[in-house]
Amino acid sequence: MTRICEKFIEEITSGSDTVSAELTQHLASCSACHEAFESLRQLKDARKSLTGKEAAAIAGILKAISAGTVASTVTASSHTASSSSLAVKSLVVAACVLSIVVAMFVHDCAPAPKTDVPVSVAENATAPQIATEPIVRIDETGDLTDNEKVASAAVNVIDSDQQSEDAENASASLDVGVQEGNKTGEAQTIFVPPDQENIESR
Amino acid sequence: MNKDKEFSQLLEETYRALSFFLRYLGLPEADVDDMAQEVYLKAYNAFDRYESGRSFKAWLFSIAKNTFIDWTRKQKTHRRFLEMNFSKDFCDTFEDSSNTRTQVKAMLEKLSAEEQILIELRFFQDLPFNEVAELAGLTVGAVKMRMMRILDKIKTDLKRESYDQNL
Q1: Which residue of B has its CA nearest to A56?
Q2: A73 compared with B97, residue with greater pLDDT
Q3: Mean of the pLDDT values across residues A129-149?
Q4: What is the C-alpha to C-alpha distance for residues B2 and B18, in angstroms, rounded to an integer?
Q5: What is the mean pLDDT of chain B?
Q6: What is the CA radius of gyration of chain B?
Q7: pLDDT score at A181
Q8: Which fold has domain B1-83?
Q9: What's the pLDDT tens digit per position in B98-135?
Q10: Which residue of A1, A2, A58 to mutate against B (max B Cβ within 10 Å)?
Q11: How many CB atoms lie within 10 A of CB A19?
Q12: How far apart are CA B104 and CA B119, in angstroms?
């Protein structure tokens, strides 16, 4: 078995009807290439034309292509419409955001009327502590030059001693928290009114 | 020539080969028509961008191969499935022996599916060797070697046939 020449393999297997002069001369001299060339020609002659099924498939593809082009034009027009509506939507959103920003800016620039309120609340909250402190200072460290004050201070000391003794006797079982509550400035102002004590003692 | 007319002519020339090529790649016969339609739609939409320097048929078949690869990714399968009736259907596209001088059909049945698709792409579609090699996943040298073997088989069978007829 002789093989066909590699030089002409491309032209022999090309399937084209036109044959070059070089190949024609070669086919006349080379039996192997000539037989191969003839066998391929017979293959081509024996090929059937398109069947009905294949023709129907081709017609379907052509129909789909024409429908596809129509659909593509429709989608293109709808795409332009949707893009225009999208632009309007974006404009509306931008306007909303701008209005919100402007409103926030105006709100920040306006004077705040409620700034004094927290200060007054703080002062009110600290006021009782300031009021109680002088009473305690008077009782402990103040200069008692006035007689009334001396007397009241003495009564105050006596009363507080008595009350503390009474409290110790009456409630020996009380806890430390209660005892500390009795020693506060509020308790002293309630139990020792200086004017009344001065009158009673005189 | 009008674009639609030219495309329909190319469609008629290539449809059979394209459907066999898709089946050779491993596409089930039931999906061939749908994928062929998808391939031709892609080709038609890109027909204006087609490079005239390259063979249109080679370009079309490369679209088919890429479409098939996309399909396998969607199917999540890499298994190649060549149907049993591929060779029979391919040989059925040739005339029976009673109508021709030689038994071409019987001769083609002896070839493998790879050899049959190489004949289809190279001889009937006139694709260049490098394009055939790329589509079949072979080297150019391997394609040439296979084509020489195919021609040897064919001419040997034809010679035997003519010898038997002369007896």
Answers
A1: B33
A2: B97
A3: 52
A4: 23
A5: 86
A6: 17
A7: 45
A8: Rna Polymerase Sigma Factor; Chain: A (1.10.1740)
A9: 555 557 888 888 899 999 999 999 999 999 999 999 99
A10: A58
A11: 13
A12: 13
Please name the residue that has the structure tokens 């080709």: B43
Q: CB A196: neighbour CB atoms within 10 A?
A: 11
Backbone φ and ψ of B94, nearest 5°: -115, 155
Q: How does DSSP assign A74-119, residue by residue?
A: HHHHHHHHHHHHHHHHHHHHHHHHHHHHHHHHHHHHS--GGGHHHH
Instruction: Calculate helix-pair angle for B129-136, B140-166, nearest 10 degrees.
Output: 100
Q: Do A1 and B8 touch (CB under 8 A)?
A: no
Question: Could you read off the pLDDT of A80-118 as tens digits, one per residue?
Answer: 555 556 677 777 888 878 888 888 878 776 665 555 555
d(CA A64, CA A66): 5
Residues in chain B: 167
- Which residue in B33, B124, B147 is closest to A9 by CB distance? B147
Distance CA B119, CA B2 (A): 31
CATH of B85-167, one of 3.60.130.10, 1.10.10.10, 3.40.50.150, 3.90.180.10: 1.10.10.10
